[in-house]
Amino acid sequence: MRILLVNPNMTTAMTDTMAGIARTVAGARAEIIPITATRGFPYIASRAEAQIAGAIALEMIAEYRDTVDAVIIAAFGDPSLAGARELFDMPVVGMAEAAMHSAAMLGERFSIVTFSPLMTAWYMNCIAESGLGAKCTGVRTPPPRPVLVDSVLKDTRAELIALARSAATEDRADVIILGGAPLAGLAAEIANEVPAIVIDPIAAATAQAIALASITMPSSFAARAAKPASKSSVGLSRHLEATIAADRA
Amino acid sequence: MRILLVNPNMTTAMTDTMAGIARTVAGARAEIIPITATRGFPYIASRAEAQIAGAIALEMIAEYRDTVDAVIIAAFGDPSLAGARELFDMPVVGMAEAAMHSAAMLGERFSIVTFSPLMTAWYMNCIAESGLGAKCTGVRTPPPRPVLVDSVLKDTRAELIALARSAATEDRADVIILGGAPLAGLAAEIANEVPAIVIDPIAAATAQAIALASITMPSSFAARAAKPASKSSVGLSRHLEATIAADRA
Amino acid sequence: MRILLVNPNMTTAMTDTMAGIARTVAGARAEIIPITATRGFPYIASRAEAQIAGAIALEMIAEYRDTVDAVIIAAFGDPSLAGARELFDMPVVGMAEAAMHSAAMLGERFSIVTFSPLMTAWYMNCIAESGLGAKCTGVRTPPPRPVLVDSVLKDTRAELIALARSAATEDRADVIILGGAPLAGLAAEIANEVPAIVIDPIAAATAQAIALASITMPSSFAARAAKPASKSSVGLSRHLEATIAADRA
Amino acid sequence: MRILLVNPNMTTAMTDTMAGIARTVAGARAEIIPITATRGFPYIASRAEAQIAGAIALEMIAEYRDTVDAVIIAAFGDPSLAGARELFDMPVVGMAEAAMHSAAMLGERFSIVTFSPLMTAWYMNCIAESGLGAKCTGVRTPPPRPVLVDSVLKDTRAELIALARSAATEDRADVIILGGAPLAGLAAEIANEVPAIVIDPIAAATAQAIALASITMPSSFAARAAKPASKSSVGLSRHLEATIAADRA
Amino acid sequence: MRILLVNPNMTTAMTDTMAGIARTVAGARAEIIPITATRGFPYIASRAEAQIAGAIALEMIAEYRDTVDAVIIAAFGDPSLAGARELFDMPVVGMAEAAMHSAAMLGERFSIVTFSPLMTAWYMNCIAESGLGAKCTGVRTPPPRPVLVDSVLKDTRAELIALARSAATEDRADVIILGGAPLAGLAAEIANEVPAIVIDPIAAATAQAIALASITMPSSFAARAAKPASKSSVGLSRHLEATIAADRA
Amino acid sequence: MRILLVNPNMTTAMTDTMAGIARTVAGARAEIIPITATRGFPYIASRAEAQIAGAIALEMIAEYRDTVDAVIIAAFGDPSLAGARELFDMPVVGMAEAAMHSAAMLGERFSIVTFSPLMTAWYMNCIAESGLGAKCTGVRTPPPRPVLVDSVLKDTRAELIALARSAATEDRADVIILGGAPLAGLAAEIANEVPAIVIDPIAAATAQAIALASITMPSSFAARAAKPASKSSVGLSRHLEATIAADRA
Known about the structure:
The structure is a homohexamer.
Chain A: E1 2-7, H1 12-26, E2 31-36, H2 47-64, E3 70-73, H3 81-87, E4 92-94, H4 95-106, E5 110-113, H5 120-130, E6 136-140, H6 152-169, E7 175-178, H7 186-190, E8 197-199, H8 201-214, H9 218-223, H10 238-245
């Protein structure tokens, strides 16, 4: 099985870290094909950025669509997830969604801990759209301060552990999701310091991509009656234009 | 007051019809500046298409942002609405959202009538995201059949009147929204044949753009603490890059 | 266009302030006809008072119904709004509802700031009934203390600014609604001191009344199939009795 | 224990029927004091009518408040229930609310069956406001036709039985509520013909009034911190004015 | 009328206290038959314990089913309530559910106060499943500490009064539910010290059992079309096996 | 990895079928240990049966808890899932929950198709409790008729295909869940005849058990602060008693 790990952010170091985690989860079960956006933003942190980077992600997936069996959209907030599911005849998994559904199957309540309150409103929207709000104890973050994506993991590590501990002991969350691609890898490092199940979203997305591919057949995706009609377009990348124009009858 | 009417669809005839309606509603109160996408799709009818056309719409708005006082995103389903609100320091109105909020202020229950069941699922999502589901009696459409956007208005007119009548008499909707840009202009034509208040979404969007601009000050938009941080980018149109990079402190 | 501004409170000074704001918003587009309750309460602040003052408001509207094009119910909490919409064949707008729907079209999240925690529970009910709870960050108020409606604006001004600032910076609300008729006019005064879009509910109600009247036809209201049947009554004001007895076939 | 049965409708025959049922339920446990509105409407069937009749109901209760231990508002839809609870220091029970909460404690799912689709929208609102929507299978009614309140019970009896049977066997409702004061007394008559628990709302309201009075103390109602402040008023009945002006410190 | 009070906890002292309160509420209207689990747990405080003790409760009820007219499941959290309602042809009432529905009919907002934060998550689930979340201001508890069920009432009494006072004055709850069987009896003792209506769940359950039995007929329960089909079983108590095997046609 | 497949039904043939599917999904990744209830019911189809069989399932899991890495509760409706998650320090997966969360990650909307309308109400409850109601188009079933669990698959096969086709083409569901253990294995057989992704719940549960075990560590489950306190018990199986009594500090 080949899984495309699409980083809609332009930061290659982030892709490398996430690919490493994905490979550890996948082991021999799947090959991970990591790709990084070459247009867009260093790190997506708003709705406008997700609108643009999501369109770029569709082009990235279209280019590889015939060579992979499942897709991970490797940005918390899951830009273009709904659109990608329409277009591509294979499982497409988002980091936030995979983490939340996994959390909902691991315990009664989960919490999201992330590095900046700037993300809280967007993450709250993700939770609400997933339908899992009743199982979520909320989003915990450090107080506002300037964020350097490159060093955020080091700068906030102690605070994040303390926040995760509070989520477990005060909010009584069974499961803690460490939200945001810059925190990839932290879950395994701090698991022993937090009295809860700690989830790394990229690990969850990898495990879910494998799970979903193992219980579905590509022909079923292709046969979906609910897919949109084929459509002509102007100005899209060659592969994306072809994907959208493909006959679905 | 100058209002930018952004058609993220590439069909100029549709833009012309909508601009005509908008001008009738605006009268002397506002000048309507209609623009039509030059990339993307003839008519957006899916989530994937909305992802892509929404990103194009942001570029279109960015180009005009310094010369207008409010923006209408003239496609039902409201592509890129959340992102546009973050970026631009003026009211940004979506056709679906404006129609639904207007309907919710005009009666107890509203219904959406549109030309194809292919749109139902997307429109139901719009309703749910608006929070107005409890006030909506549902979406009524003709049975499935191939849709020609150019002639849909003529082809389905009698059926749409019958559906609107049923929504009023059977579902007891006070207000009927005729959803979808291809139906622009129909509301005024059929109002006398339907025992309910019939809303044309482009008229509603125009009225709401004027209303919102009349009770807000541009300086307040610019001062919003909740705006995302400025951000560098690669590969965007010049105006959109500048918008996103603008200092917001 | 003529808009009836119905103050169901008996405080004429409040009516005067609100009429002034409404006139500023309306400009040449509409004439504002302000009327003040001559029975009932100085200021409505409970459900029981709204039940009674709402019935009085229906009588007030009935008296003017043939001479105006739209109605504003000028009390936050919107007493008798549902009933007035049934009875009168024109747009009827409530201050709370108009402010919340406007806020929902101006940003991702809004907050309500008001002068007393005594109002919080009622306002929370208004938010829930509007369906907009997911977009509201809550109601912020000063701590409990005796309220003098006449001087509340002066007494709490500094506190209200601080609360609005907190709603913007801590709760990340894009839009702040200053709830309660006694705060009419404050929004414009403090807008520059709050890093958010600040909404004056009477301004919002005026803008919405004009917007809704501009996209609807009186004949459609009269033709609504969902209107209740005509009904005989005893003991109502002459105009209200006639309104309710009017044949609707 | 003395229970005031307030019929906000002007139809005395309806009051008599309901008082008879209430007395059967109460037996020796409570004395029923039935009163009938002398102003308002023969039968409330809209929001506007409920706004007005609810204000009249508050006056009716105020007159008897010192001589009874609990109140039943004997109209489905429960006009002025929230206001009456604020004002009067004793249990106040609504017919719709009592029937729905009783039904929710008797089975997994309940249905409302009533005599006219004209009531459906209002009843759906009642269900939603109670929070019990997830336990309700819907409202079933005969098709639209002119309703004569006096003979509706006789005219629709066979249809109502058939509707109740369908609600039980098709919707799998455990409990059927026969909604609307004109159907008072029907539940006991048809119980053997319906494979479900059939609830008469006036019986439910009586049982709940007794239940609530038996587990509460009048002094606790009087001491409620959450009661609104006392208030002066103009033009109210003497007793209602005194109730609202009463010192609550 | 005979009411079975089933304590699924093994603590007889708790049964005795609850039976005393139930008898006070019932007076001459009903005879209370208290029974205590002889297997299971001293005090149920988790989902796993409720799963097991609920199955035991079904056996306890089955043994008495032919000799009683209604059942109270006397543990907050209401183990096996849904199953018992399916099986037994009479009203079955849970302590949490009865308290919450009663509270919802006594005021606008209720609060739950209990002795340990360990119960909060479970109680929040109960509230959500009842549908009454919008009427609940939350669960207030003392900080975490070891709980001795036998002395918890004495140990936490002052704190519980303070919490109830805060729920009334700060959260503006009209009604306070003292949750958890170990607090049975406290409501009456502290009512005068709390500015709200204070509910004892076992009192509420008793009043509701009587109310529901007074408005229903056993034959209607037996005739329910929505009951599950009869079923053979292995290893159940003799009475429960017979109950589940009983023909329901 | 060793996965315990717990069939709380007593039908061994059903266990065998499910174990076969689970082994196909697991391949070399996990060993499946199937066990079948020796007490309880041939096939669980009600809340009461789930209460009892769920308690039995806890005993079954307790016996194997030290020898497996994850647990599947192999009955749609997921008896004792919440309790099992509290008690056992490993992933515990329910068939209904796993199928629904998988479906929610595979498409915009899913439908459940099952063999009898007797299951509809219970399945609707499962959907609501999962939070995924907004993504579900409903439950489709054949009309009521007597069900023989042994032959139901053969008897209803053609009808189930037709229902699944309708769910895809009329309700526009992207994903169809074939609900109920008696339908295990059908998904793979009919996938080519249905224009949607068809999910077999036991396959989904197996894939999810493996996924969740691959991203979590047993030590984190053991360390959960939100676990209930240890508790003494009477009359439980030896292993379950020991599990519940285990020290969790």
